[in-house]
Write a structure and sequence with these properties.
The structure is a single chain. With 273 residues, this protein is of the alpha/beta class. It has a single domain, classed as Rossmann fold. It has helices at 21-32, 44-56, 71-85, 126-154, 175-195, 213-219, 222-229, 240-251; strands at 12-16, 36-41, 61-65, 90-93, 157-162, 200-207, 262-265. Helix 5 links the parallel strand 5 (157-162) and strand 6 (200-207). The radius of gyration is 19 Å and the shape is globular.
Length: 273
């Protein structure tokens, strides 16, 4: 097996949450490995910037503004991809969000959380819960249902879901995030079983803390930085490109016998307990 097995030449990939951070890195890495990309997010400007970078790499790129929690918008995005790029081979469900609030207001901060503001004692609303569930989990279901028939017809394809180490460990103040990421890992396993007869591999990546805009503000607080780095054996953040390179592997022929797995890219965080 040579380097060509790690390429995705002339494949077409849909990447959600492609406007920044991990999603943009995934889009660019897949393009570098030979794929054409549909970059998906709600903000047109950001995905247009991603698409422009892909085109500089010599690959075709579409920027399709889409709310992936809306079934009609997702189906329209898939049809546009087929019309413009001809086929779909790879789906990366990367979009995600989190809301940091306790389940109920207790009037007590957890030990080690002394730096949090008083509004962290405002409890989660049902709207908060639904927002995280729909963005992190329901969107992956909707995208899989829209793309799946095309993969089944061609009897091959790759689906890669971006989960989290918080699929395996609980976190105070962001229960919806943990629950949805655990659900995404289980959805990965269910899809892998259903689609294995059609030579479709479905896997997930569970990143630890990655150096993105999402956590930049928190890292400015010494206590938060320590809470992230101290339990991480490698004592650093991961980089978006490190996640992206693992996506390329999972999307390539090198991973054709790998399915139903969540691979944790966490600097040793889960191994440390």
């Amino acid at each position: 097996m040579g380097p060509d097995h790690y390429r995705v030449d002339d494949k077409v990939a849909i990447v959600t949450g492609a406007g920044q951070g991990i999603g943009r890195a995934i889009s660019l890495a897949l393009a570098e490995a030979g794929a054409d990309i549909t970059a998906v997010a709600r903000t047109p400007k950001k995905i247009e910037e991603t698409a422009a970078e892909i085109q500089k790499l010599g690959r075709r790129a579409l920027a399709i503004p889409t709310d992936v929690t809306q079934e009609d918008q997702v189906r329209e995005m898939v049809e546009k991809t087929l019309a413009e790029l001809g086929h779909i081979d790879i789906l990366v469900n990367n979009v995600g969000t989190e809301i940091s609030k306790p389940i109920i207001a207790t009037g007590r901060k957890l030990p080690g959380w002394q730096w949090v503001e008083d509004d962290w004692n405002e409890p989660l609303t049902l709207q908060d819960w639904h927002q995280v569930v729909e963005t992190n989990l329901t969107s992956a279901f909707i995208c899989a249902q829209a793309v799946g028939p095309h993969l089944v017809r061609q009897k091959k394809g790759k689906v890669i879901n971006i989960s989290s180490i918080y699929a395996k460990i609980a976190g105070a103040y962001f229960s919806p995030y943990c629950v949805t990421k655990a659900g995404l890992s289980m959805l990965t396993r269910c899809l892998a079983l259903e689609w294995a007869p059609f030579n479709i591999c479905v896997n997930a990546i569970g990143p630890g803390y990655i150096n993105t805009e999402m956590i930049a503000e928190g890292l400015a607080v010494p206590e938060i930085e320590a809470s992230i780095l101290d339990p991480t054996p490698l004592k650093r953040l991961g980089e978006p490109r490190e996640v992206a390179l693992l996506v390329v592997y999972l999307a390539s022929e090198a991973a054709n016998f790998l399915t139903g797995q969540t691979m944790y890219l966490d600097g040793g965080r889960l191994a440390a307990g």
